């Protein structure tokens, strides 16, 4: 459903938020290890997230990545998805066809529109803070 970059972006943002809530800044290498992603690929993803004001990048010996505590509650998963993949997840055909719309629907079009709308609603309603809270109390986990 999400691109690999988007999956890593959500994992990285969640990990950075979790550390930021504990007043910790994390390095690129630490993030890549935690989310099991190649360092160069992780750097590219983090750059996109920083460019879209989802996280902050601090240079220097004590640098790393962080997210402002007040912002963690405001960031929705839809912000992260949009920063990495744009809005294509809400527009594409369920079968991957080029010519699929309400006037010329594919066999899955009407069913897939419902799923897409529910996905969009879930992403717009779920905050990064919610993900970190579930991690903190052990209801979810981040590693494979």
TrEMBL record:
GO molecular function, one term: DNA-binding transcription factor activity
A GO-annotated cellular component: cytosol
A Pfam short name: Rrf2
SUPFAM superfamilies, per database record: Winged helix' DNA-binding domain
Coiled-coil boundaries: none
InterPro entries per UniProt: Tscrpt_reg_Rrf2, WH-like_DNA-bd_sf, WH_DNA-bd_sf
Protein known as: Rrf2 family transcriptional regulator
């Amino acid at each position: 459903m999400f691109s690999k970059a988007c999956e890593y972006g959500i994992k990285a943002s969640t990990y950075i938020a979790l550390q930021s809530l504990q007043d910790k800044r994390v390095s690129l290498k630490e993030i890549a290890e935690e989310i099991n992603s190649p360092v160069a690929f992780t750097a590219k993803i983090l750059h996109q997230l920083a460019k879209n004001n989802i996280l902050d990048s601090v240079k220097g010996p004590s640098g790393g990545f962080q997210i402002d505590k007040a912002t963690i509650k405001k960031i929705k998963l839809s912000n992260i998805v949009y920063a990495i993949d744009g809005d294509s997840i809400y527009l594409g055909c369920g079968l991957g066809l080029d010519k699929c719309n309400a006037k010329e629907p594919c066999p899955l079009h009407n069913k897939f529109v419902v799923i897409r709308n529910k996905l969009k609603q879930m992403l717009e309603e779920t905050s990064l803070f919610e993900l970190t809270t579930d991690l903190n109390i052990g209801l979810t986990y981040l590693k494979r």
